[in-house]
Amino acid sequence: MGMRLTLTFPVEHTPSGLHVQAATTAYYCSSQFRDQEVGGFDRCTSPMEAILCPDAEQSMYCQLLCGLLHRDSVDHVGTSFANSLVRAIKFLQHNWEEMCSDIRTGSLSGRITHAPLRDAVILRYLRGPDPALADEVASECAAKPWDGIVARLWPRARCALTIVTGSMAQYIPILRSYCGGRLPIVSPCYASTECAAGVNLRPLDPPGRASYALLPNIAYFEFAEIQPRDEETPTVDGDGDPGEMKLVDLADVEIGRSYELVVTTFAG
Predict the structure, then answer these.
(1) Do residues 136 and 69 touch, judged by C-beta distance below 8 A?
(2) Contact 42/108 with Cβ under 8 angstroms?
(3) Is 183 exposed, middle or buried (0-12, 13-18, 19+ CB in 10 A)?
(4) Would the pLDDT of 19 be above 80?
(5) pLDDT by residue (tens digit) across 151-163?
(6) At what angle do helices 172-179 and 82-105 cross, to 10 degrees?
(7) How confident is the model over 111-150, as pLDDT tens digits?
């Protein structure tokens, strides 16, 4: 069973009335996600009511609480991106005492006011007082510093599963500290709003050396070459137009050169 911390965010609107929302939110709020047991979410500690809760703070509180209630069953801890996992641990650092009180008394904090979420946690997760578990969690959380806190709170976890490449690489040092050096950090895929472009075929390599195999059946991939700083010149297309970036297909990339990935989905 995994502890996957998953949040959805309110839909915003453009001045013309178009919906604007994160790609993950659109998926989690869809019938494809809600009505089908896909991606292992049917085997994670977070209740669906928490994932779909519009209040991010209430959602995070309950997902972490449910993860603690199942601490001996959790085999991995994860979020979509590394920054979310760091935020979750910092949230736990500020709220663990209240969560321990909930576990000790078998009741749910009054801060949880979203009715579907409150009912789900009380009826399916908080099954009476558990002072022994509360003491175990409090003992780990009270210890300073918080190095290794993820491995200590979820002792059977085999990895921390979160994307740590690209702009997320800056969070590798703090995640290594939280994982204590003995819990591998696995970066599972190369993803963007448009699609999941590739998968990590060597997940146990150090996170700073993660590389991905592109999946050419997911979308149409092209590559824009990045010029070294000392060779920066306007990149032109085949017709010599400096206003167009030169793109090459997957079959035409060259070893030793650097590229930015350009994705065209099947929707165009």
Answers:
(1) no
(2) no
(3) buried
(4) yes
(5) 999 999 999 999 9
(6) 30
(7) 999 999 999 999 999 989 999 999 999 999 999 999 999 9
Distance CA 43, CA 149 (A): 23
Cβ-count burial 91-117 (b if 16+ within 10 Å, e if not): bbeebbeebbebbbeeebbeebebeeb
Q: Which residue, 58, 69, 138, is CA-closest to 106?
A: 69
Tokens coding 186: 């696995």
Q: Are strands 160-163 and 76-81 parallel, antiparallel or unpaired?
A: parallel
Residues 199 and 191: their CA atoms lie apart, in Å, by: 9
Beta pairing partners, 95: none
Compare 134 and 237 and report the one with higher pLDDT.
134
Identity at 19, one-letter amino acid code: H
∠ at Cα 85 (143, 221), nearest 5°? 155
Q: Residue 208 has which token pair?
A: 């700073």
Report the alpha-carbon distance of residue 84 to residue 88 in Å, rounded: 6
What is the C-alpha separation between 71 and 137, in angstroms, rounded? 9
Work out the angle at residue 208's Cα, subtended by the Cα atoms of residues 205 and 209, and round it to the nearest 5 degrees. Answer: 50
Please report which confidence band the pLDDT of residue 30 belongs to, taking 50, 70 and 90 as the band edges: confident
Assign 234 a pLDDT band (cuts: 50, 70, 90).
Answer: very low
Select from 256, 250, 259, 167 the least CA-distant residue to 214.
Answer: 250
